[in-house]
Amino acid sequence: ILLLIRNPKDVATSFYHFSNSMSPLPSYETWDDFFVAFMSKKMPWGCYFEYLSKWNKYADDENVMTITYEELKENPVLGVKNIAAFFGISLTEKELQTVVERSSFQSMKKNSQKTHGTFGNILFRKGGVSDWKNLFNEDHNEKMDKAFEEHVGGTKLGTKLKYEVYCKA
């Protein structure tokens, strides 16, 4: 199992834009309205922190590889090499470069009409990291950090996310 996790602040930011673009999902007039719903576990898929907590019990399983979105953005070649090694797939240098190129956000966004139809425009927005800084104020940031610490702060997944998000930022 490949478990891809992401900074909860960017998860919230992405889902805010996503839910406001998808008519079946609740939309929010303001970021503050969304943030309250996100932090009070009123999301259609549930609470991201509880999701991480549930996966944390499998983090040491030899059949689970955890990687962060931030790691893949920072060094996609290393990320693909590690994923291939985990699954026991050997790649030539050319195959590695092809996988890296085709799995880049830019490439997937460019091809999203072919791969996802009209849904592609909604699914592939920016693909960056730290977009949360455009929406979060100091209060949002403190509340999210506190919830993170309460739910996953000392866990393996929490430590991995914290290192990728805070130590490398």
UniProtKB/TrEMBL annotation:
InterPro entries: P-loop_NTPase, Sulfotransferase_dom
Name of this protein: Sulfotransferase
GO molecular function, one term: sulfotransferase activity
Family of the protein in this entry: Belongs to the sulfotransferase 1 family.
Enzyme class: transferase
Keyword Transferase: yes
Keywords: Transferase
